[in-house]
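job 3f2a | input accepted
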Amino acid sequence: MLQGFGPELKFITELSGRFEKRNKRLYVVGGAVRDYLLSHSKKGGEQLSFRPDDLDMTTDALPDEIEEILLGWSDAKWAVGKRFGTIGAEKAGFKFEITTHRAESYTNDSRKPVVKYSKSVEEDLSRRDFTINSMAFEVTSTSAPILIDPFGGLVDLVAGVLRTPLSPIESFSDDPLRMLRAARFVARFNLKPDPALVAAMTELKSRLEIVSKERIRDEFDKLIVLPEVSSGLWLLVETGVIDEFIPEIPALKLEQDPIHRHKDVLSHTIAVVEKTSSDKILRLAALFHDIGKPATREIGQDGVSFYFHDVVGSRLTKARMKELKYPAEEIEKVSKLVYLHLRFHGFEAGWTDRAVRRYVRDAGDLLDRLNELTLCDSTTRNENKARRLKERMDELVLRIATLKEKEELDAIRPDLDGTAVMDILGLPPGRQVGKALDFLLELRMDEGPLGAEEATRRLLDWVKSQEK
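job 3f2a | predicted structure (468 res):
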């Protein structure tokens, strides 16, 4: 039997028996088959535990027939995907999606597939994205599962090769998003893309224009958070696919310093992404952190400079992420990290309390991410230089912790609020109150907490100085 599957195997067997009574066949397909075989192949390590929502199945039964078969068995079922042939079911907390064999395809200008049902599991598997995902287990109630592998997916999985079941031209024409998915699988499973697949990505990259920005964004997000992401990013760059949705990235392929031949910005950027932890906000900030460099590049006698590339890069990041329909909160966080990614280096002479307060206030809840981005932004092979950077960051973290023990660094605000300022100065709400609060905030940043009495005295002195 399928050692490695969990308690859901019991329900798979029950389901298969119900389908058999209708003279229908049932197959487990998709990631569960791939991951099961991977865990039992030469490349496998620990056996995998399959999540209930990973269990996809296909059958020669039509959607109405699937619903009838599930009647009285499932605890719950849903048919939101019925028009695409999919019926969902839940049993004892396990979720199953059962889909009628399909032979879907895309027209040249369509973003949605034309779904046609098929009686053949082999035809269904042929329309899937890659051979490693074009395998199935036929399950029955009485015998061991049978592996259906018409396109050599198991051989490719063991050999570490990414291929499409049909020609890659046909596969990517059917669904252009598969080109991004190819990058994800190359990175996730450490696969080598077949040369014909690479050629097809290069040829058909412009076909991504029929895919919605949201689908592109969601697929790219799945790639960017993988533990090892660089091979997937390089595949997108080398085929030109990334030009279609983040053209600023390949534009980074320029030498930082044509005189001294330093590494190009693109190689540096991908290295930084790879170094950061698998957090989407941090990874996107690492990807975008230097995109302002091409627009700010200047070459002088001392070499190349990129003044204000943090400011320009933040603006470009906002525009690109907005184009890709990212949520406003994520856009704000990523662009802020890009804007602040050089801030640490502005305090070479040492960290005063005032500087520490400003750094913490400006970073806000992104402080830990900003510190990690700063450290990862150094891709030098000079061990002494890397060590000095780490020591300086450790010093800053210690300074932050020390100040936090004395004052509320996480919520720096003036010692007096707006109501108190209006009462003391006899002012109505307005611009003058705002100026007074700005003064008090600067005072708080410079000197730390003063208390209400001292803050009041300093506020009155400030007002007198403004009247002179």
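job 3f2a | Residues 43-52 have pLDDT under 50 and may be disordered.
job 3f2a | closed
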